[in-house]
């Protein structure tokens, strides 16, 4: 067996699968000459966002408050404060894509609210990754058998198998326009973007003695 001929191959698999998650960010902002007024408005607008997200469960799987910012705006010529700004950003993860468009429109219709997204993705433990790995191994075995057949031989054993990488595309951004507060909220349909998943392995197989000549 130690002196048996060896064939080395690379197996690859590529799939495009439906996304499992959609993420977007919603940012409530406020501005006023008075600091307390700014904070009060910011708290009210953030609370309004929370009410809409509460109503969207269980379509909303997760929400995380990110950056909270409050800062003064000063005159260029000095330190005199002319206004205060505030913002708070929440990252929202949605699993029910049928509710996604309506939720984003409702949020965008709130006063002084900014949206970005959605970004489509797979779960870290998605079955799509396992299926791609299995397909890459099957591809490696098929290639080894083809090479062996071309030599009049057959694959006899696996010597080594190495995972050279599993990758997926970076999150994809879909841009959409929204109505300003006070206008009629439009209907918004979002088309989930397929997620490319690619796996590759390198394998070495022993083969029976080739028939040459």
From TrEMBL:
Record-level GO BP terms: DNA damage response
Annotated transmembrane regions: none
Stored InterPro entries: 26kDa_periplasmic_antigen, SIMPL/DUF541
PANTHER family: PERIPLASMIC IMMUNOGENIC PROTEIN, SLR1258 PROTEIN
Name the record gives this protein: SIMPL domain-containing protein
């Amino acid at each position: 067996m130690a002196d048996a001929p060896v064939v080395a191959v690379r197996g690859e698999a590529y799939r495009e699968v439906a996304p499992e998650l959609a993420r977007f960010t919603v940012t409530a902002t406020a501005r006023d000459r008075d600091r307390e007024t700014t904070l009060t408005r910011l708290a009210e607008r953030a609370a309004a966002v929370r009410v809409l997200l509460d109503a969207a469960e269980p379509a909303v799987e997760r929400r995380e408050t990110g950056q909270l910012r409050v800062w003064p705006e000063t005159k260029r010529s000095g330190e005199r404060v002319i206004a205060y700004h505030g913002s708070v950003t929440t990252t929202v993860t949605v699993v029910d894509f049928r509710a996604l468009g309506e939720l984003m429109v409702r949020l965008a219709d709130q006063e002084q609210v900014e949206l970005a997204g959605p970004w489509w993705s797979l779960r870290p433990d998605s079955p799509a990754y396992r299926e791609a790995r299995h397909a890459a191994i099957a591809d490696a075995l098929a290639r080894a058998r083809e090479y062996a057949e071309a030599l009049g031989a057959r694959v006899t054993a696996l010597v080594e198998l190495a995972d050279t990488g599993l990758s997926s595309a970076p999150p994809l951004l879909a841009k959409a326009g929204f109505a300003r507060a006070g206008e009629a909220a439009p209907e918004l349909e979002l088309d989930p973007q397929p997620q490319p998943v690619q796996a590759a392995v390198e394998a070495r197989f022993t083969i029976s003695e080739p028939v040459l000549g």
